[in-house]
Design a protein that fits this description.
By secondary structure, this protein is an alpha/beta fold. The protein is built from six helices and seven strands. Strand 5 and strand 6 form a beta hairpin.
C-alpha cells in the first residue's frame, strides 16, 4: 500500500510538472524556515523582524544582571564591611557600530537594575540619582510628594553602576545579523577598582524584506 501511495504521489508531481506547475520554495520563505529551524536548537540567537535591541532584550538583560549583582560574594562582603552601598547610576556608554541609543534608553538599560534591586532592598543600597537626571526632574512639575532620593550634590556616591554596549553587524543581500556585547560594571569610585562585572551577549538575525 505504501509503495502504491508513493507511486501515486510521484505520478501526481510528474503530471503537475508537465502541466507547468512548480514546487519551488521562494528564497525568502526558505530563509525564514531555516532560521526557525535553528532558533529551536537552543542557541543564544534571536530571530525576528529587526536586529535592534528592544524591550524584551531590556527585560532579559536587566533581570539577569540584577540577580548576579545581588548574589555576588564580593558585593556582599563590601556591604558587610562598610555598610549600605552608595551607588550612582550612569547611562550606557555606546560603543556600538551604527546603532543609535538615545539618552532615555541609555539610562533605562541601567536604571531598571536599580529598580529591581530596590524592590528587594533590605537596606543594602543607597541609590543616588545621576546629577543631570536629577536636575531635569527637578525642573518638571512633578506630583506632590514625589521622592527623588538624596540630592547628588549633598551625597557622595562610593560606587557607580554603568554599562558599555558594543556591537558587530554583518549584512548581505539576504539578511542582517548583529552581535551585541553588553558589559555591566560596579566600580569603586575611591580607587577605581571594579568590584563586580558581568556581560550579556546576544545575536539577532533579520531577513531582508522584513528589516525595519
Amino acid at each position: 500500500m505504501r509503495n502504491a501511495e508513493q507511486k501515486m504521489t510521484t505520478s501526481n508531481i510528474d503530471s503537475r510538472r508537465r502541466n507547468g506547475f512548480s514546487f519551488r520554495i521562494p528564497r525568502s520563505a526558505f530563509l525564514i524556515l531555516l532560521l526557525l529551524h535553528f532558533s529551536g536548537c537552543g542557541t543564544a540567537t534571536s530571530h525576528g523582524t529587526s536586529t535592534a535591541l528592544d524591550h524584551i532584550d531590556l527585560i532579559n538583560m536587566t533581570d539577569d544582571m540584577a540577580k548576579k549583582i545581588a548574589a555576588n560574594p564580593q558585593v556582599k562582603e563590601a556591604i558587610a564591611a562598610n555598610g549600605p552601598m552608595k551607588i550612582v547610576v550612569m547611562p550606557v556608554e555606546n560603543q556600538m557600530t551604527g546603532e543609535i541609543l538615545p539618552r532615555g534608553p541609555a539610562m533605562t538599560f541601567v536604571s531598571r537594575i536599580r529598580t529591581l534591586l530596590a524592590k528587594k532592598d533590605t537596606g543594602q543600597y543607597v541609590w543616588i540619582m545621576n546629577k543631570d537626571v536629577y536636575r531635569a526632574l527637578q525642573s518638571r512639575e512633578l506630583e506632590p510628594g514625589t521622592d527623588l532620593g538624596p540630592d547628588p550634590a549633598s551625597t557622595n556616591p562610593d560606587y557607580s553602576l554603568n554599562a558599555i554596549f558594543s556591537s558587530l553587524t554583518k549584512e548581505d543581500a539576504d539578511r542582517r545579523s548583529s552581535y551585541y556585547l553588553c558589559e555591566y560594571q560596579l566600580t569603586n569610585l575611591k580607587d577605581r577598582r571594579i568590584l563586580w562585572t558581568d556581560k550579556y551577549e546576544l545575536k539577532k538575525i533579520a531577513v531582508k524584506g522584513y528589516l525595519d
